[in-house]
Structure formats: C-alpha cells, structure tokens
Design a protein that fits this description.
The complex is a heterodimer of chains A (572) and B (290).
Chain A (H helix, E strand, L loop, with lengths): L9 H6 L4 H31 L7 H36 L7 H20 L30 H30 L12 H32 L7 E5 L2 E7 L2 H35 L6 H15 L14 H13 L1 H13 L10 H24 L1 H7 L3 H31 L5 H27 L18 H18 L1 H14 L69
Helix pairs in contact in A: 2-3, 2-4, 2-15, 3-4, 3-5, 3-13, 4-5, 5-6, 6-7, 6-8, 7-8, 7-11, 7-13, 8-10, 10-11, 11-13, 11-14, 13-14, 14-15, 14-16
Chain B lengths: L25 H22 L9 H34 L11 H35 L7 E8 L2 E6 L28 H4 L2 E2 L3 E5 L4 E7 L4 E5 L4 E5 L5 E5 L5 E7 L12 E6 L1 H10 L7
Parallel strand pairs in B: 1-5, 4-10
Antiparallel strand pairs in B: 1-2, 2-3, 5-8, 6-7, 6-9, 9-10
The chains are: A mainly alpha (572), B alpha+beta (290).
C-alpha cells in the first residue's frame, strides 16, 4: 500500500496534497489561471496590431509579446501536461501514486512560486522582460538596450530557473514512476500510447533543460556579475559601453538546444493521447501501435540534434546549416508514420462523435497543417525568407498552440468524468468545439499567409513598411476578430468545467466504455486509486472489437475470455 | 471537487450511458465539410501569390523552393484530409471487424517514411541546395562590395570609395555625425570611404556582397523583394549576397527584435542601371573628404 496515509484535514487533502490526482488537478487549474493571463495578453497584442495607435507604447507591446510567449510555453501548456501526466500516469499503469509524492507536491508549489515571480516582472521599474520569449542577448543583457531588460528581465530569469527546477522534479517523478511502478502484466509494450508519449517527452526534457538553466545563469552573471559570456562592447548614444567580448551565438545554441526538444516535450504527449481518444470513440484499436512507438522514439532522438534550424540566418558555417536542414526534414518521416496511423485509426470506425472525439479529429487536421509548415522552415533556403516572419509565428502556434490546446481539450473532456465523477455537458462541449477549433486554426493559418507576404514578427506597427500594404494588412483585422472568438469561446469551457465538476451528471466508473486501467477505478478514484488489489494486466491497451470474441471491448484488466487468445502482441 | 468517495464495489448512481442509437449524425457531415472546405480554401489561398515578385536571382531560386514545397505539401494535406473524411463518412457499421495484420501496419509505416524522405530531402538537396551554395559557398564573380552597419534603430551604408578598400574601424571611434561608422581617420584607406545614410544604392545584374556588422545588439538585414535575410551579430562580421534582377526601390526591414524602435528600422535599396550607378558612385565624396 501507499507510504503516505490518507489525508485528514482540508489543507493536506486539497492544498499541500501528496496525492497525484489532487496535484494533477492543481496543475490543471493553475495552468488555466495562467492561461487566462496569457490569453488576455494575446488579445492585447492583436488589438495593437489591428487598431494601432491604441493605448500601448512600444515598450508595453514588446513586454506583452514577451510575457505572452513565455507564459504560454512554460507556464500554461507545460503545466497542463504536468497536470495530465500526474493524473493519468499512475492510473494508466496501475500504480497507487507517483514514485515520489513529496517531490511531486514540491514541484507544484515551486511552479506556483515561479509563476508569481514571473508575473511580478510586470511590476518592475522599466516594465516586464521585453526581449522576446527567446531572450536573446545582448538585447536582454542590459537595460541600456531596452527598458524591460532591467529588473523585469532578472525576474524573468529567476522565474525560468524556478520553473525548470519544478519541471525537472516532475520529470524525474514521471520517469521513475513509469519505469518502476507498473502493475503486474503491464509490460512496456502494453502501455497506453499516452504513457509512451509522456515517457519520451520526459527523457527529452531531462536531457534538454539543463543547458537552458546554464544559459539563464550565465545571462544572470553577465547582467549582474560582470562576466561576458554573451555580451559584446556596444555603442549607445555615442558612448562606448564596455561589456566584454562574448559570443551572442552561444546563447542561441544553448537556448535552442532546449527550445527545439521542448517543442516535442509538449507536442508528443498531446499527439499520443489522441490514439487513446480515437480508439475509444471509433471502437477500434489504435492503428499501428508498435510502429507508432518506434516512430515516437525516432522523433525524440532526432529532435535533440536539429536545433540549428532556428539559426540558418545567424551566419553559421554554411555546411553546418546544410547538416541541420538535412537532419531536420528527416523528422517528417517518423512524423508521417504517426500521422498516417492517426488517420488509419479512424478506418472502419463505429463512430461515436462525442466532444472529446471532435477535438481529437480536429487535432489531426491541425497536425497536418502544422507539420507541413515545418518543412518550409526546416528547408534552409526557404527559411532564409520565412525566418522571423509571421510564417514562423503561425507555424509554432499551430503546433504548440493549436495542436496542444485542441488535444488537451480532448483529454480534459475525456478524463473529466474520471477526475470528478461527473460528465461535462455535451451540448456546451460541442458549442465550445465549433467556436474554438475553426477560429483557432484560421488565425494561425492566416498568419502563415502574412509570413508568405514577408511580414516581420514582433513589430509594434506593421504599417511602417509599404510592402505590408494590401494583402498582408488586409488579414490583420480578421485575424484579430477570429482570435477574439477563439479566446471568448473559452468562457463556455470554463463554465462547463467548474459547473460540471459540482453539478454534472454522474459519470459512473467507465462512461466511455474504454479499455485502459484508469477506468477500472471508481470515479473519482479514492486514495490509493484501486482499492485493496491492484488490477492485473492481461493484454495491450486498445482491445476494441476483439476478433473472435462477442464483446465490444476487452479491458486491459479483464481476465481472458474462454475463446482463443486475443493478445495483439505482434509475433517477434 | 466532489467529497463523495465511492467504495469500489458500490453500484454507480444513474451512470451516464452512451446512446448507441444516436450515431455520428450531422456532426460528422459538419466536420467533413469543415475539413474539406477548409483545406481547399487554404491551399487556394497559399497558391494565390502572396509574395511580392522576386527581384533577385537568389530570390527566384528561393521562390522555386517555396513553390516546390507548396505543391508537394499541398497534395499531402489534401489527400490526408480526403482520406480522413472518407473514413468518417464511410464508417464501419457492425462490430464484425478484422484487424489489420502486423504486416499491414508495418507496411503503412514504411510507405510514409519513404515518401516523406523523398519529398523532403529532394527539397533540401536538389531544389534548395544549389541556391544555398550560390548564396554562401560559391565565390561571386565581379561583385559590388558594400558594408551595412546596424545600430538602434537605423542602417548606415558604407562604400570602400575610390581605392576600393574598406578602411579600418573600431567602436571606440564612433562619434555622432562626425564619425557614425567609427572609421579610423589616420588610415588612408578609410579617408575616401563613402557613407550613405539609410539607402543602399546598387547596380542591377551584378552580385552585391553586403558585409554586415552591428554597433549594439543583434539586427537582421531583410529585403523581402530579394527574399534574403542575414543577421548582424555584434562582435562579428557576417555576409549576404544578392543579384538584383530589376531596377527600382525596395525596402530593408529589420527582422530581429532589436529594441523599442525595431518596428521602425526601415531602410531602402535603390537598384540602378549600371551606368547610372557608376555616375552616382563617382559623384560621392569620402566621409573624410578623401
């Protein structure tokens, strides 16, 4: 049984809880709060672009852009996945809790502390950090270049360092739990693909984050300790300011050594959990379970060695650039396997088009558009043109904004009954879907078109350039209006989430008639998850429509039926 | 969060049940319409020529890559969506179902791998490679050499002057309008160097090699009509090459966030016929009168 006893008081149950389920929900709620801030910032950006001459000054605009990006990547999407992973991993693999419950609790509260420090950046003299979410020095290294590069940037660095600490704690927990705490019969190749997604993502995160920590600390020393890792002598207002003889490119290498795998850290679990949703709502096994896993491992491996495609125009050696381009576009191959398997999972479906399924199908479409957009940026010469334009903005928002958000929505609607024992309203869910998915995809695909027109990102006022007149500018206001619809529609989700958590229709143990272990536990699962006996796993995760058995689904924990074995294990 | 913790054996109260009678219904058709209309609109939109027409040889090469990718990925996206919609429309009906064999699953893994490797690596090596080489590897023939300096928030253009040699410079000599480029006024080669505000004047039809350096932070020299972009790194000198194919005025944008005035760091390239360029450059006097 569990090391830690069932909580007694309110504090130990809901606030400083050691229970992975509570911590998971805490993460999700925390990320929703930060998401509201970041979405508000997004609307401020779009307002400035569509109706410039509004109240913002350039310093406000750049701070808003920077904080929007930082919050969304590190304080919204990442913790949403920490939340889902925390909630799902032990339930999926038949464990009673995470491997290190105390570390788990600390990880969440350090995330809260990091969020507070990051938001406090807005209160500093000079305003919040404004050098972009990438924080390239020298711009981010001295307030003589940019007001936001004063204390605002220092708090940004501290907030990031704390976030990385929290994420590393969570990652260690995920990895140890997945490798060591699987229940009897849960071999690696019987794990649900969601768990595989988290496993690969966690390994990537643990390998990739330390260089960013190093870069952040070096930047901190450059700013406050008189070092010059990244800083170079500069002339400001005719004054030569001695800053040293550093290498600005070093920061970019360190940043993207993390930055590129980080994209996969947040995208891979989102893509993998789609298989799970698809299987439950098509009543068919996920197509190509093993090929998908090998493709996943290839994507993970390749993602670590292609960071230089963010730097084609920095003046790198052209042969290095060529290597990075050749290696980058190889990723499309394993990714295409996953894409084909997602589509093929819908083959001969007995379709149940509930809200989670709608979100999952739209995510496949977003992966398609986002994925091919990557080819334009990974191919070295077209990237010369597209680098730092709205094409890039549209592309990464499609992948780590739209794909992640739509997929996480699918996950929340799917596992909400397990979390709260209640159903979310289907009517509101569908309304939420139809307002969110088309508008979100339209926003970012239209940004690709502005990028095709050469419009440069991070610009306070795009009308300075005459080449933006006409096609480029004509899209700006429609994008803003669509973005408002996409953000506004989340009010429906919030109402549905919090109202249903208390007043929703009781869900029962397994409302979607799904096959994996978490549905064996009561909804919501009690302390220790599974009662006295842990479930024993008899087969792979997606035994829907099993052959030769007169049953719709064979759950992982159900004993073998009388008929011949239905194990899907592929003969070696 | 609900307080009720069910005992594992208690029956669920009024549990939710999937209504098997309702089927996918109109939702599937709506989704199919969304996917198909959306995809076709997007592809048509991308094909509609959003770019300003390329005005450099290298730009035409880059455009070929973009066109290649638009066509090949357009087909992939369209086919993918069509198949997905077909699956959604057709459905599977009964619970009678034969699983795809492991062989089928691996085959469906192999096909996309081969297809995507062919499409993407052909794009990089065959379509994109020669343009990349002409930009960064091959030595340009009879080029015009200029220097563009980036500072918050303007461009300074320097020509080597009559001697054809750029003089020495250092940041410590930078001083207002007297010496905006930080030239060494004791260096004979620097005396005749020509400075020209924010306007880069070049002849048509000849390769132009631009050396780039920055006085403060990272900037990025971007001429959308030429399709070329190159970062300016403080402490380093970088280079970009382009060969204008038609005369006219084109805009220089700063593409890398460089501070509050980033959005306003506009410059111009004026492409002149060779004779006009020759006349213009001869009429220029050195910044130090040399």
């Amino acid at each position: 049984m569990l090391d830690h006893p069932a909580p007694k008081g309110f504090l130990s149950r809901y606030v400083f809880s050691l229970d992975h389920k509570v911590i998971g929900i805490q993460y999700i709620v925390g990320a929703i709060v930060m998401g509201l801030v970041a979405a508000y910032l997004a609307l401020l950006i779009r307002t400035q672009l569509a109706w410039s001459g509004a109240i913002q000054q350039p310093e406000d605009y750049l701070a808003i852009v920077t904080m929007h990006g930082t919050l969304m990547v590190f304080f919204v999407v990442s913790p949403l996945l920490s939340g889902l992973g925390n909630y799902l991993i032990p339930l999926h693999i038949g464990a009673r809790d995470m491997a290190y419950p105390l570390l788990n609790m600390l990880s969440f509260w350090i995330y809260v502390l990091a969020s507070v420090i990051m938001l406090a950046s807005f209160l500093m003299p000079g305003g919040a950090a404004a050098g972009g979410w990438t924080a390239y020095p020298p711009l981010s290294g001295s307030e003589s270049f940019l007001p936001g590069s004063g204390w605002g940037q220092t708090l940004w660095i501290l907030g990031m360092a704390l976030f990385i600490t929290s994420f590393t704690m969570g990652g260690l927990n995920f990895l140890t739990t997945i490798l060591n705490m699987r229940t009897k019969g849960m071999t690696l190749f019987r794990m649900p693909l969601t768990v595989w997604g988290f496993l690969v993502a966690t390994v990537l995160a643990l390998l990739a984050f330390p260089p960013l920590t190093a870069a952040a600390l070096m930047l901190l020393f450059d700013r406050h300790g008189g070092t010059s890792f990244f800083m170079v002598d500069a002339v400001i207002n005719d004054q030569l300011i001695a800053m040293g003889d550093g290498t600005p490119l070093l920061f970019q290498h360190l940043f993207w050594f993390l930055g590129h795998p980080e994209v996969y850290v947040i995208v891979l679990p989102c893509i993998c959990l789609l298989f799970e949703v698809l299987a439950a709502f098509t009543r068919r096994p996920a197509f190509g379970y093993r090929p998908s896993i090998y493709a996943l491992l290839c994507v993970g491996l390749l993602s670590m060695i292609v960071w230089g495609h963010h730097m084609f125009v920095t003046g790198m050696n052209p042969w290095v650039g060529k290597y990075f381009s050749i290696a980058t576009v190889i990723i499309t191959a394993p990714f295409a396997v996953i894409g084909v398997n997602l589509v093929a999972s819908v083959w001969r479906a007995r379709l149940r088009l509930a809200t989670p399924m709608l979100f999952a199908l739209a995510t496949i479409s977003a992966i398609g558009f986002g994925g091919v957009g990557g080819l334009f940026l990974g191919t070295m010469t077209s990237d010369i043109y597209f680098h730092d334009t709205y094409f890039v903005v549209g592309h990464f928002h499609l992948m780590i904004g739209t794909v992640t958000m739509l997929s996480i929505m699918a996950a929340i609607y799917f596992w909400f009954p397990k979390m709260f024992g209640k159903m979310m309203s289907e009517k509101l869910g569908k309304l939420h879907f139809w307002l969110t998915a088309p508008s979100m995809m339209a926003v970012f695909i239209l940004m690709h078109m502005q990028g095709l027109g050469g419009m440069v990102r991070r610009t306070y006022d795009t009308s300075v350039y005459t080449y933006n007149e006409g096609a480029n500018s004509s899209l700006t206001t429609p994008i803003t209006i669509l973005a408002m619809i996409a953000v506004g529609a989340q009010a429906i989700f919030l109402w549905n989430f919090f109202y249903s958590a208390f007043k929703g229709q009781p869900s029962g143990r397994n409302p979607w008639e799904a096959s994996t272990l978490e549905w064996e536990a009561p909804s919501p699962p009690p302390h220790g998850n599974f009662g006295d006996e842990l479930p024993i796993v008899h087969r792979g995760p997606y035994e829907y429509s099993p052959e030769g058995v007169d049953q719709d689904v064979l759950p992982q924990a159900a004993p073998d039926p009388d008929v011949a074995s239905t194990d899907t294990e592929i003969p070696e | 969060m609900t307080e009720t913790v069910e005992s594992p054996t208690a029956p669920d109260p009024k549990p939710y049940q999937w209504n098997n009678g309702s089927g996918p219904g109109g939702g599937a058709l709506l989704l199919i319409a969304f996917f198909l209309i959306g995809t076709i609109t997007v592809i048509a939109g991308f094909m509609a020529g959003w770019r300003p027409p390329a005005a450099s040889e290298e730009g035409q090469g880059i455009d070929e890559t973009i066109t290649y990718l638009l066509v090949s990925t357009g087909v992939i996206v369209l086919v993918g969506h069509a198949v997905l919609c077909w699956f959604l429309l057709k459905g599977g009906g009964t619970s009678e179902y034969r699983r795809p064999s492991a062989k089928t699953e691996w085959l469906f893994g192999l096909i996309p791998v081969i297809l995507m490797l062919a499409i993407s690596e052909a794009g990089v090596l065959i379509v994109s490679g020669p343009v990349w080489d002409s930009l960064f590897v091959e030595k340009p023939v009879n080029p015009v050499r200029v220097e563009v300096i980036g500072k918050q928030f303007e461009w300074i253009v320097r020509y080597p002057g009559k001697d054809g040699i750029f003089g020495k410079f250092a940041l410590k000599w930078v001083h207002g309008v007297d010496n905006p480029a930080g030239l060494d006024d004791t260096d004979d080669n620097a005396l005749d160097d020509v400075l020209n505000g924010k306007v880069l004047v070049v002849p048509v039809g000849r390769p132009v090699v631009v050396s780039l350096r920055s006085h403060d932070v990272i900037h990025s020299f971007f001429v959308p009509d030429f399709r070329v972009k190159q970062d300016l790194l403080p402490g380093y000198t970088t280079e970009i090459k382009f060969t204008p194919t038609r005369t006219g005025k084109f805009e220089i944008a700063c593409a890398e966030l460089c501070g509050l005035g980033h959005y306003n760091m506009r410059g111009e390239v004026h492409v002149l016929p060779q004779e006009e360029y020759d006349t213009w450059i001869r009429s220029q006097t050195g910044h130090f009168g040399g």
